[in-house]
Amino acid sequence: MKNILIVGCGDVAQRALPWLTRRFRVLALVRRPEAATALRAQGVTPILGNLDSLRSLRRLAGIADIVLHSAPPPDHGDDDPRTRRLLAALGRGESLARSLVYIGTSGVYGDCRGERVTESQPLKPITGRARRRVAAEQRLRAFARRQGSRLAILRAPGIYAADRLSLERLKRGDPVLIAEEDVFTNHVHADDLARAMMLAIFRGRGGRAYNVNDDASLKMGDYYDGMADVFALPRPPRMSREACAQHLSPMTMSFMSESRRLDNARLKNELRVRLRWPQVIPGLRAIRDGAI
User: Fold this and answer.
1) What is residue 282's three-state secondary structure?
2) What is the CB neighbour count within 10 angstroms for residue 268?
3) Is residue 251 in a domain?
4) Tens digits of per-residue pLDDT, 159-182?
5) What digits encode the pLDDT tens for the residues 70-87?
6) Is 152 in contact with 208 (CB distance < 8 Å)?
7) Is residue 130 in a domain?
8) How far apart are the first and last CA of the chain?
9) Burial (Cβ within 10 Å: 0-12, 13-18, ≥19) of residue 62
10) Which domain holds residue 123?
C-alpha cells in the first residue's frame, strides 16, 4: 500500500479522507497535538511539524509516494517559504514522492476583465496573496522537473460549503457593486474540489494546471442576491465602486477588482470530474435544506 502525505489537512482534505484511507496509508502533517488525536480517529497517521520550521520537517524525507499540498502561504511577502521548506524536506530522502497535487487559487490570473479564462492564460497576479501562490506553483514545477515527479495544480476559486458562506456579510448589509461595475466571480463546492483532488492523483497529467470550478457564470452581486434569496435575508445594497470602498475592507475590495470566467473543460475532459453541484444556487439550496 502506498503512502500519501497530506500537507494542509483542512476541510477539503478531510472530506476526502474516507476515500483515501481505503486506498492508501494516509499521513498528515499537523502542528497541534489535539489535531493529531482527531486525525488518528479517522485512520490517519499524524506527523507533528510546522512549515515555518525546516528543522521540524526532517521526518518527511522519503516518507511518501504521493503528496497532497493545500497549506496556504504566509500572509505577507511575494514568496511562499512554506512550500520552499516542504520541498527541501521532501527532497532529502532517497525515495522521492512520485506524484504531487497542489491546491492553489484562480487568483493567479489576476483581472481578466470578464473574459473566459483557460489554464493557458498568462499569470498576472495583482495581490500579494496571488503572487505568493504563483511563487508556490513555480517552486513546485521546478521540483517536479528536477525530481521527475508528476505534478497537478488545481486552481480553485471561491470554495463554498455549509460553514463557508458569507451570511454575516448579508446580515450586516455590506454593499455589492452596481451592475455596470460588477465583476464575474467563480465558485466550487468543497465536495467537488475534494473529488478533483482525489482524481488528480491518478488522472492528472504531469505539470498540468486545472481550473476547478462549477459551470455557473455569475456576477458577484447576482451571487449575493441569490444567496440572500435562498436564506431569506435582505439582498445587499448596490453601490458604486467608490462608495463600496467607504464601507468595505481593502481585502474585500480586492476581490471586487478582478473579473474572470473560468473555463473548466480540462477538469471534465482530463480529470473526468462529474460535478455534483454544477450550479452554485442549487448548491446553496441543498445547504439550506440540510442535504449537504
Assistant:
1) helix
2) 14
3) no
4) 999 999 999 999 999 999 999 999
5) 999 999 999 999 999 999
6) yes
7) yes
8) 31
9) middle
10) 3-160+188-215+261-277
- β partners of residue 100: 67, 151
The answer to whether the beta carbons of residues 146 and 208 sit under 8 Å apart is no
Residues whose CB falls within 8 Å of the CB of residue 254, separated by 6 or more in sequence, listed in order: 126, 127
pLDDT value at residue 93 = 67
Q: Is residue 233 part of a domain?
A: no
Residue 279 vs residues 35, 201, 217: alpha-carbon distances, Å: 33, 25, 9
Output the DSSP codes for 151-193. Answer: EEEEEE-EEE-TTS--HHHHHHT--EE-GGG--EE-EEEHHHH
| Average pLDDT of the residues of the chain | 96
Crossing angle of the two packed helices 11-21 and 190-203, in degrees rounded to 10 = 50
Exposure string (b/e) for 245-262, b if CB count within 10 Å is 16 or more? eeebeeeeebebebbbbb
Report the CATH number at residue 64: 3.40.50.720
Q: Is residue 116 part of a domain?
A: yes
Residue-level length of the chain: 292
* Single-letter amino acid, residue 154: L
Question: Is the model's pLDDT at 42 over the cut of 80?
Answer: yes
Looking at the structure of the chain, the number of domains it has is 1
Q: Which of 251, 225, 228, 244 is nearest to 177 (CA)?
A: 244
